[in-house]
Amino acid sequence: MLPPPPPPQGAMATGAANHAVPCSAGRPAKRNQRRSPASLSVRASSDANTVTLLDYGAGNVRSVRNAIRHLGFNIRDVRSPEDILSADRLVFPGVGAFGSAMDVLTRTGMADALREYIRRDRPFLGICLGLQLLFDSSEENGPVSGLGVIPGVVRRFDSSEGLIVPHIGWNALQINKDTQLLQGVDGHHVYFVHSYYALPSDANRDWISSTCNYGQSFISSISMGNIQAVQFHPEKSGATGLSIFEKFLSPNSSGAKVPSHKKASKLAKRVIACLDVRSNDNGDLVVTKGDQYDVRDHSSSKEVRNLGKPVELASQYYIDGADEVSFLNITGFRAFPLGDLPMLEVLRCASEKVFVPLTVGGGIRDFTDASGRYYSSLEVASEYFRSGADKISIGSDAVFAAEAYLQTGVKTGKSSLEQISRVYGNQAVVVSIDPRRVYVKSPDEVQFKTVKVSSKGPLGEEYAWYQCTVSGGRDSRPIGAYELAQAVEELGAGEILLNCIDCDGQGCGFDIDLIKMVSDAVTIPVIASSGAGSVEHFSEVFEKTNASAALAAGIFHRKEVPILAVKEHLEDAGVEVRMQ
Q1: 537 has catalytic annotation
Q2: Can 189 be counted among the known catalytic residues?
Q3: Is 434 a catalytic site residue?
Q4: How many other C-beta atoms are found inside a 10 Å radius of the C-beta of residue 269?
């Protein structure tokens, strides 16, 4: 995996976009490790309301910043090894690839400073990769040596037996040690997104404060003295995650109590709220909803349907219990994505109020502006990440990349899908598939995968294949949803958002035939989309397919079906869900 794009203000400084005005006790070093130079001995700072943040410029760290600020603390960025050693409290939200992170830390002298800081037993909170880097090594593109603070190896989840990888979603913890950080967390779901895990062993047993089960037991948090680290993302774990942050930042605080509806026991099925965002005829950004992808009202006015303001709706859905919020940018600004300042501002403002994962899609591709300057899809995605997105969704560009790959069998590494997943990890890349049902009398009529449909076609056809489209469903392509899903998984997609043009806006239920076919064909999570009209449609899709999540838009916007009603129904039906 290539190193992450360098931030514009020094090796460990954050990008300028991260500073936009808001909208409202360690193991001794091994002999083969360099010891910290004496010059790194720095007296700790004394500002009790300031948190030091180690951000090396990859992925979305804005959410961590927002969580810290939400709790009333200021942030001091690490710009040198001395900044680490002078910190009162250090938060390290590691993202991206293990090897790339270690390369940056070693090259800048931060690795030695981190080892020394931890050796002194100073307050430390590592998040996700910030936990994994504490171990001896990782098998990710390796083996690659880590900081060597905790004995053990980081390995990849094994998908050969059907386990869906990455591990994405809300899972339960098994508490192994009584620690202040995890007080009150037992029984609640927290949000994970990772393909690699730290393996428990006798050698690191004393460090483990909790484990999680996903195919097997893995280390979900560690605690030793003042050294804490978690594999999950507290900044994306709603009120439970904010409570964890509060207990680290204010050791004398018990953190806000989070009521638990039913004790969490395993990975939950996710309920996602989707907001289609575009400019209306007056130039205002609004949330709209299509009827088979047509977003204009069928009345004489033909105006773009206006179902609310993006940030306000996203904030309300977070309060209502949505497990994720997805923005689809269908505004005309997509012709120049980096010039789409209103949409970027929507992301920035939403990320200050929404502490669950945010996904954004629309216009993520290579392009050349009017002056002739070329922008790579990686640059476009990076701007979305810096503005608050946790995942980006690629549509048409992924279709073209898959077609080329299936024709040549060659991974060029140049497609937007490959570029972004290589730098930010496949867990950060969602591919949105927009197919249309095509009925046939026999599977022999087409070269694409067909299914025997639950309801016959208009001429009594018993089979159908699902033809993929691009450009918002306007143009059909010679590739099926089954073939596209398998191809994009090989090219680096970490998740599939599976729509269905025939079902969009109809309220008659998800296309079970399509979702079952695709979710059985891949080993990455599949999000069911298009057609939800009642709570029963959600339980049906989870009971009859391997979908990991279900997404809806119009029924939530129009308040026809509340998110809480969906979750209560799923819970009654025996489906594991996150309740708050």
Answers
A1: no
A2: no
A3: yes
A4: 22
